[in-house]
Amino acid sequence: MYLATWTNALRNLRENQLELIQSLKDGGFDSKDGYAPEEVIFGRRTIAPMDLVVETLQPKYTDEKDLVESITEAIRECHKDVYGRLQTSQRTSKKFYDENVKTKTQELNPGDKVLIRLFTRGKLENQYSEPVEVVTTTATTATIKNQKGRMESIHKNRLKKFMEEVATSGQLQDGQPEKPKDQQRRDSEQPVAKEATRGSSNQQLRRSRRLQGKPADQ
Question: Per-residue pLDDT tens for 154-164?
């Protein structure tokens, strides 16, 4: 009953709406490989009521052997085509990433001091280790000598060069990165704010003593 009602309703649509019907019918297709999920798995597309209006061609089989051979060949061709399209999509995405997103790997030399990013620590804890020395480097990794005296190879994206002159001036201590400028400004303003609050309290106290008829400096 539902199928008949749906089919009759679609057949009553005007000619200028057939393009919309086709787009709705193809809504389950993957934009990267151009195939519906069931076609990749089973080798056949689902026949929807809209196919009756659009009148798409459907495959016909003479017997079970012809059915199995046709579906097997369809799956093989589908997988070959999908693999090729996915490879092309991956190359395009990688090219865009390398040209627009990927950051330049920092240059490290043997003897440099570096900090190691520790991903296992909590958000409120120090995210970097104590300064360690770089022994050797490659294009993407660096071999460092850790606090226990052991050699360890770490990817460069986990390393940050330790600036000794900054640490000596007091802006970088205990292997921690320099504070943001807004945080430094707030820290410098705190003593001024406390002094202003103390002065305001003294003025209120003297005013209260005068209202009570008492000496202001008592």
Answer: 888 888 888 77
